[in-house]
Amino acid sequence: MKLKGDQNSATLFELRPDHFLIDAKFQGYKLSLETLPVYVVPIECQIDHAAPTDDQYSLQHVKLAALNNHIFPDPWNPSSVYIVDHNWIIYKIGATQEKAGQLSKIWTIPANGSKQPGRFNITMIFPDDGHAVIADGCGTIYILETNSRNSEADTNWKVVFHQELFASKKNFQFIILDSILYQEGTTHMDILLLRIDERAEWKEFLEFHQDKYLSSSEHPFVSVLEWITLAQDESKVWSLESKRCLVGRSGVDYATIEPNGTALYLASDDPYYFAYDSKNPVQLSNAIEAGGDSTSESDKSDYVWFQNGTQIRLWFRLPEESKKFDFTIDISANDIHIEYKKQVMLSGKLFDSVKPDESNWTLESGKYVIQNITIIIKMSYFDFYLYSLYRYYFM
Predict the structure, then answer these.
(1) What is the pLDDT of residue 215?
(2) Measured between alpha carbons, how far is 85 from 389 in angstroms, rounded to an integer?
(3) Are 103 and 43 in contact (CB under 8 A)?
(4) Where are the alpha helices (DSSP H) in the chain?
(5) In what order do the strands lie in the sheet with 360-363?
(6) 244: Cβ–Cβ under 8 A, 6 or more apart, which residues?
(7) Exposed/middle/buried for 378, CB within 10 Å: 0-12, 13-18, 19+?
(8) Of 11, 136, 347, 385, which sits 20 to 30 A from 78 (CA to CA)?
(9) Are 133 and 125 in contact (CB under 8 A)?
(10) C-alpha–C-alpha distance, residues 251 and 248, integer Å
């Protein structure tokens, strides 16, 4: 789904294959026999790792831990990666095509005496070639000026902003999912954070959203996305400009901020809801389900299809009690028309002519009642336009 900066502009995008990109003659990939260079760099220090506690048992916690990697790549300098040891010292490891570099000490994260049980793993991300954003897993975020990270003397990192963001909350730990830097009058930095909260902390909000996603008592935790924006003034001082917050039942599979800071892309099993926006206050009476589908019911289809160089296959989901005589299926050279109990399921013109005499369909009991409607075509590639699509809902 794509979430605009304005919570009332949340839009669900259904990802569908673009058949214009399908190569009907594709035969498969060829395995390259060229050897890949492998470099081994001895690391004497112990890598920092935060183990979950007995209270962090939910699927949300598991998914959050799975998003973490103890090796932090630098997209602006692909020849280098970073690690953090158990003393919270950041090291850089560089490599070239000829050899691997040495382990270089870069910066030490202030511990602040906060390495308590239940903390999250440290996360680090690079929004551009001159900044790093670090979360210590204990509730504090750091923004650092790194200058050029391409040089071997990459040790001049300087803290330009740090803050305990959720100190007043019981579950204040968080990780970083994404960060971007962009210009909008002044320099802005958006940072996307993820934390796990107990349902009791969101009692009023959950009571409003009485639906199967957020009201389930089987899920004692909720996932909270914190989308914060910082601005840099003329003196190059960073300050917190705005906060947005979204709440969902399931964990996050993928989330990223659009490069210009106007939208958030989120993939999750269940919908997320805007709970707070410092720029555009959220009214519970107008709260928007982030997963809400913006298309009308008549625009949704209840079929899936597959195409290769010689045929198209369509599968329809229908009630298990469906019988063969419930269907009227007409396939002509240029049209297709399918009815179920005298209701049109699919009707439209084909882009090019097909072979109706060689087309067939079968009906099987199970989750897909019409198992195959296979259309054999003359051409090696074509487009398939359909009109008047209807969706059916069955319990």
Answers:
(1) 55
(2) 57
(3) yes
(4) 59-66, 203-208
(5) 303-307, 311-316, 370-376, 360-363
(6) 5, 7, 226, 227, 228, 274, 276, 277, 278, 279
(7) exposed
(8) 136
(9) yes
(10) 8
**Is residue 135 classed exposed, middle or buried when 0-12, 13-18 and 19+ CB atoms within 10 A define those classes?**
buried
Per-residue pLDDT band for 302 (boundaries 50, 70, 90) equals: low
pLDDT in tens, 338-370: 888 888 888 888 777 777 887 877 776 544 334
Q: Coil, helix or strand for 161?
A: strand
Write down the H helix ranges in 270-367: none
Spell 191-230 as b/e; 16+ CB within 10 A means b. bbbbbbbebeebeebbeebeeebbeeeebebbbbbbbbbb
**Angle at the Cα of 233 from the Cα atoms of 127 and 167, rounded to 5 degrees:** 65
Task: At 234, list the tokens.
Answer: 């003329």
With tokens 């069955």, the residue in question is 394
Neighbours of 125 (CB within 10 A): 21
165 pLDDT band, cuts 50/70/90, is confident
- What's the distance, CA 68 to chain centroid? 14
The separation between the first and the last C-alpha atoms of the chain, rounded to the nearest angstrom, is: 26
Band (209; pLDDT cuts 50, 70, 90): low
Q: How far apart are CA 339 and CA 322, in angstroms?
A: 12
Number of other CB atoms surrounding residue 365 within 10 Å = 10
Q: Is the pLDDT of residue 4 over 90?
A: no
3 state DSSP class of 299:
helix
Parallel/antiparallel/unpaired status of strands 311-316 and 327-331: unpaired
User: In angstroms, rounded to a whole number, what is the distance separating the alpha carbons of residues 41 and 350?
Assistant: 60
Q: Are 85 and 48 within 8 A, CB to CB?
A: yes
Task: Please give the structure tokens belonging to residue 154.
Answer: 């990459």
Asked if residues 130 and 145 have their Cβ atoms less than 8 Å apart, the reply is: yes
For residue 245, the one-letter residue type is C
Contact indicator for 144, 159 with CB cutoff of 8 Å: yes
The number of CA neighbours under 13 Å toward the Cβ of 373 is 21
